[in-house]
Amino acid sequence: MFMILTMIVLVAALNIISGLTMLVKDKGHDIAILRTMGATRGSILRIFLITGASIGVVGTLAGFLLGMVVCLNIESIRQFVSWLTRTEIFSPELYYLSQLPAEIQVGETVTVLLMALGLSFLATVYPAWRAARLDPVEALRYE
């Protein structure tokens, strides 16, 4: 399960990278103006690191909470979907299950949570570095 969740988090990290890269390209003019007004490379780097990290933290916490709610209520969800569709989902005669099992493994959950937070922080480094490296003269030349 850890490998599956790692792949899902990697895709989310790539989305953070692409989103922040597009944000840096889109806000190049504004970054150049901030730099000409006296903002340092470090302050631009911090702005984009905080932006990307907040996206990662909010996404990780939302995924964690949603996963916990689904895991704790999986049998109720199965019964509701069965009632809604008027079919029997996971028939006991076919699957030999009286109820849908779900077990929360604390160690694996914490590992996935820390891995997701770490990857989301790492995903913000490259776009933030690109934003901090932006030359104000080149960014404002063709505006």
From TrEMBL:
Membrane topology: Multi-pass membrane protein
Name of the featured protein: Lipoprotein-releasing system transmembrane protein LolE
Subcellular location: Cell membrane
Alphabetical keyword list: Cell membrane, Lipoprotein, Membrane, Transmembrane, Transmembrane helix
Pfam families, per database record: FtsX
Signal peptide start and end residues: none
Stored InterPro entries: ABC3_permease_C, Lipoprotein-release_system
A single BP term in Gene Ontology: lipoprotein localization to outer membrane
Transmembrane annotation, as ranges: 43-72, 110-129
Keyword Membrane recorded: yes
Top-level division of the source organism's lineage: Bacteria
Family recorded in the similarity comment: Belongs to the ABC-4 integral membrane protein family. LolC/E subfamily.
UniProt keyword annotation of Cell membrane present: yes
Lineage: Bacteria, Pseudomonadati, Pseudomonadota, Alphaproteobacteria, Hyphomicrobiales
Organism: Methylobrevis pamukkalensis
Domain ABC3 transporter permease C-terminal: 3-136
Encoding gene per record: lolE_2
One GO term describing the cellular component: plasma membrane protein complex
